[in-house]
Amino acid sequence: MANVKLKNVVKNYGSLEVVHGINLDVDHNEFVVFVGPSGCGKSTTLRMIAGLEKISGGEISIGDRVVNELPPRARNISMVFQNYALYPHMTVRENLGFTLRIAKKPQSEIDQAVAEASAILSLDPYLDRRPGELSGGQRQRVAMGRAIVRHPDIFLFDEPLSNLDAKLRAQMRVEIKKLHQKVQTTIIYVTHDQVEAMTLADRIVIMRDGYIEQQGTPLEVFEKPVNTFVATFIGSPPMNLLHGRADNSGKNITLDDGVNVAMPSRLAGKYADKDIIFGFRADNIMPVGHTLPQGDESVEIDMTVTLTEPLGAETLLFGEIGGTQVQAKMLNPRIVKPGEKLTFQIDLEKCHVFDAQSEMVLD
Amino acid sequence: MRRSKLPEWFVLLLPAFIILAAVVLIPLVLSFYSSFTAYRLTRPDSINNWIGFRNYVRLFEDAGFWWAFGRTVFLLTIALNLEMLLGLGLALLVNKVTWGQRGLRTIMMFPMMFSPVLVGFQFKFIFNDNIGLMNNALQSLGLTDQAIPWLVDGGLAMFSIIFAEVWMSTSVFAILILAGLFAVPQDPLEAAKVDGCTPWQTFRHITLPFIMPFIYIALAIRSLDVARAYDIVKIMTNGGPANRTELIWTQLARTGYVDAKMGLANAMGYISIFLAIFFTVYFFRKLNASRQILGMAD
């Protein structure tokens, strides 16, 4: 049970710097998810917290203790690995009890801790099997059990679900969330899957190229992305981004193909004569007659549908505006043929405007 | 022309049968048969002189033979254990080397590339009590002022042979164990570190089980090698002094080719085969068990 502080943490391999001075405070009992594309430094950061990678600069503290020079075993952490990292020559029971056996705890205590963990994760039927005889989901539960048994200060998860199939992944997501509610421990979780990040996190930390781009609750990063990277990375399908220019009154935007839309009223007049990126999610562009109840501000735009993806309750419509692909949603869908021209409504209140140069949000 | 009535499969396999018979079956049967005769190389007719189990009975009653047998087991036990420990240590060290490892691995294999006869000569020179390197070094360092009779003293002679054996073959273990170390998955090692293992505990509980199969493969190979040890001993001590380094195969060769009692020698050979079979079966069982534990068995 502890908080984690990263102060200006740097990692380089030779002359290549992969993590550039990260600052982060994780509160006690908080569930923090690092998310980002591969190579963004999220796993490296996690491994530095675990002590599996030396840090090249800065300071990491767990609780009130600076752990820069401590080996992993002295940090009182548990880690769940992507490939489960179970000990193949030990039974599930031995895997679970290993950390306590190493710590030379009495057998009765080990048995009790193993029984507890096994009950939490429903592992009782498998205790005498070896990892080789378990399915992927069961192995991942054993890995989690091994982490619980230790009663660590922090749990570290390194892409624990990426080797599981989609259905199992959804199940395990629920289990991890339940686990967090049951054992009440600080969790730092790494994933490249924004759905996992959104569903699990108290706080999402979005990383790119060794920098933190944004951090906040799932809703914050979804509704108020600070830049186009976060806007496209969080949320599915990704946000539509169209290049355009604000006119000299700052109240209208001319998109690249000459289509005019109004500047959202909260921004009207603030940015005149400026190259901008106009962003809106598929949920906020819908064909007329198939929309959510609209806010006060909306704009209509014609678009030819090039491709459809029926999802049942809704259909994704693909089209192009000014040569850029746009995805729209259609509620209560009817069959739409590629080539059909529809009129869409864009909800301006939910639109985002970014600076075309810096790609940062304008507000 | 009458066609042969032999079935086709037999005709097709006939060349293989003939070759197998010529190189394996006939020598095997002949040597086994001759172990029941008083066959002497100097009197070829004696191969017809059937004496039943008399050769075997003689060997069972021959203390000298059983001493040689026991000495072979002793050499095997000591040499294999030493080679295993040293090879393990060497492999662990080389595994830590990050620069020039390939070169090191090649250099490590040099001793295996020498002919055992030459290794025997080399160590005969090194351990020579007058002009040998070993005594020279010990005396120069002031550790002793006497000439230690390495190859003449009963106990030291065996030690010298084991030394030469270990020098030549530790790299077999080192290479195989190194291959095993390369194959150890990194994840469980990292998990163990996080789980609170000290480096020693990580080695003991994680690394060692993973390399056990490789150790057993090396033990199986080397046990066959040492069980038929002949060349180094022949050169260094020729079984002496006073038979203190006589092994099964040196005695067997002496009996067969010097004394020309080939029937008796063949009987020895068949008894000693059990030694080789025993160790091979033993180590393969161990190998399979250790693979099973890792879930690698079929």
Tell me what the structure shows.
- The complex is a heterodimer of chains A (363) and B (298).
- By secondary structure, chain A is an alpha+beta fold.
- Chain A has two domains: 4-233, Rossmann fold, CATH 3.40.50; 240-355, OB fold (Dihydrolipoamide Acetyltransferase, E2P), CATH 2.40.50.
- Chain A has eight helices and 20 strands.
- In chain A, helix 2 (92-102) packs across helix 3 (107-120) and helix 2 (92-102) packs parallel to helix 4.
- Chain A is elongated.
- Chain B is globular.
- Chain B has helices at residues 8-34, 54-61, 63-96, 101-108, 110-113, 116-126, 133-140, 154-183, 186-194, 199-227, 231-236, 248-258, 262-293.
- Chain B is an all-alpha fold and 298 residues long.
- Chain B has a single domain (63-293), classed as MetI-like (MetI-like fold, Orthogonal Bundle), CATH 1.10.3720.
- The mean pLDDT of chain B is 89.
- The A-B interface holds A 50-52, 71-73, 77-79, 81, 83-89, 98-99, 102-103, 130-133, 146, 150, 156 and B 185, 187-188, 190-198, 201, 205-206, 209-210, 293-295.
What does this entry show, briefly?
The complex is a heterodimer of chains A (about 375) and B (about 300). Chain A is an alpha+beta fold and about 375 residues long. Chain A has 8 helices and 20 strands.
What's the quaternary structure here?
A: heterodimer
Give helix and strand order of chain A, one letter per element, not per position.
EEEHEEEHHHEHEHEEHHEEEEEEEEEE
Give the overall silhouette of chain A: elongated
Radius of gyration of chain A: 24 Å
Structural class designation of chain A:
alpha+beta
- Strand segment count of chain B: 0
- CATH level-two architecture of chain B: Orthogonal Bundle
CATH architecture of the largest domain in chain A: 3-Layer(aba) Sandwich
Record the SSE blueprint.
The complex is a heterodimer of chains A (363) and B (298).
Chain A: E1 4-13, E2 16-26, E3 31-35, H1 42-50, E4 57-62, E5 65-66, E6 77-80, H2 92-102, H3 107-120, H4 136-149, E7 154-158, H5 166-183, E8 186-191, H6 194-200, E9 203-208, E10 211-216, H7 218-223, H8 228-233, E11 240-246, E12 252-255, E13 260-262, E14 274-280, E15 285-287, E16 298-310, E17 314-321, E18 324-331, E19 341-347, E20 352-355
Parallel strand pairs in A: 3-8, 3-9, 6-7, 7-8
Antiparallel strand pairs in A: 1-2, 1-4, 4-5, 9-10, 11-12, 11-14, 12-13, 14-20, 15-19, 16-17, 16-19, 17-18
Chain B: H1 8-34, H2 54-61, H3 63-96, H4 101-108, H5 110-113, H6 116-126, H7 133-140, H8 154-183, H9 186-194, H10 199-227, H11 231-236, H12 248-258, H13 262-293
Helix pairs in contact in B: 3-8, 3-10, 6-8, 8-10, 9-10, 10-13, 12-13
